[in-house]
Amino acid sequence: MLKTIKRMASKLGVKAQYDGASTRRRMAGKGNTITGPNGPIERSLPMLQARSHNAIRNNAYARKAKEAYVANLVGTGIKPQWGNDEIQQLWDRWVNECDADGVDNFYGLQALAAGAQFEVGEALGRIRYRRVSDGLAVPMQLQVIEAEHLDPAYSCAFDGRLIRMGIEFDGIGQRRAYHLWRHHPHEKLTSEINTRVAVPASNIIHMYRRMRPGQLRGVPELTSVIVRMYEIDEMQDATLARQKLANLFGAFVNRKTDHEPEDDGPLFGTQVTMPGEGGEEMDELTPGGIHYLEDDEEVTFSDPPDIGANYNEWLRTELLAVAAGAGITYEQLTGDLKGVNYSSIRAGLLEFRRRAEALQAHLLVHQWCRRIAEQWLDVAVTSGALSIPDYWQRRASYLAIDWIAPKWAWVDPLKEVTADLMEVRAGFKPRSEAAGERGWSLDQLDAEIQQGNTSADKHKLVLDSDPRITAKNGSLQAALEALAAATEEEESN
Which Pfam families match (predicted)? Predict the structure, then answer.
């Protein structure tokens, strides 16, 4: 098709009006292949996943990128506020026994899923229903499995249904089932043991970032920088080898053909076997060694260009690109805070936090937590763990959950809190938003304050965020004091 367009354009004398659409020498061979959202993923996903696994195992920067991603998106866990004490207490019991593998709690599984999504592009969770007699708070558990269980090469069509990259769709394009390997396909198990199983889509939580409409599978977060990371590794190894070679100080003795020395020379270093003696050849240099050469032999070293003082700047530039591709800041990737001040680190963190909050809302909460909470509450009611007579009529209201992420640590707490206080007092921000930014729901915060106010040994707490009660400096408004005085005088009379 592209060739046909070129031929027609050349005959008509038409030139591309956009430089980016030009097919001339400057842009020849650059992104000319037109693909859909799934073709490249279907062909490349296994290799991308393998290389991402290897990079995170062996590359310190890749490992740090993953840890920073998980720590900022999940932290200690994104926790639900159900708005119902009975449901909340049952949930708090269940989170400690929800792991089908018996290792993590619910928030540990959140971190595990977020790490898998970063590393291979997607995370799979399988709902496991249990017997009531198993003694769980709610007879349901969650099993987190690697995305390799879902084979991207498994595609076919039958009986009006379509299987694409392991996902089965019905006639109207709804996900019907996931065809999963029973065991990890790279564990080298026999085909009799490891077979595909069609698991209903309602039992599978599939979390991935959809970058194009119609995209069915996710790709590793390091995809755009995986080549660069491997090249950084190679460059660092080459630089280290060059430096080691430069430190190999030694001496070479060159024999003359017309003169035989009376002895082997002074022994002021490590004496090294001469080439040819004992049937051995000199294949490495020894620091401080004296190396004897054969007649008419000489030693020649390669002289690669020395980047010298530019090495640090080159590495920093490359790591800036890696951090951008991984979706974190350079400081988070490297821990290098040289030249950072309050304004610059705050600007960088604010931009990163916008991205992190979007991922928390669209990825972790909507695709992962919400689906699990819906299944959990349905099972809790149907199993009798919860008794809610009007549940099915008011199910939507019971599932209106506030998911609270861990609060962000401030660069300068005094400046940040003072700014929030001024916005709340001026009416530019509600208290609920300020509380949510700190990891509290407003109901929970007010309940804690009320509990403190009702304690016998404490006076009532007056908040200075309300300008009707307190002045800007935190003192009570004069009008309130006068009103209290007048009320007291009236009562005394």
Answer: Phage_portal_2
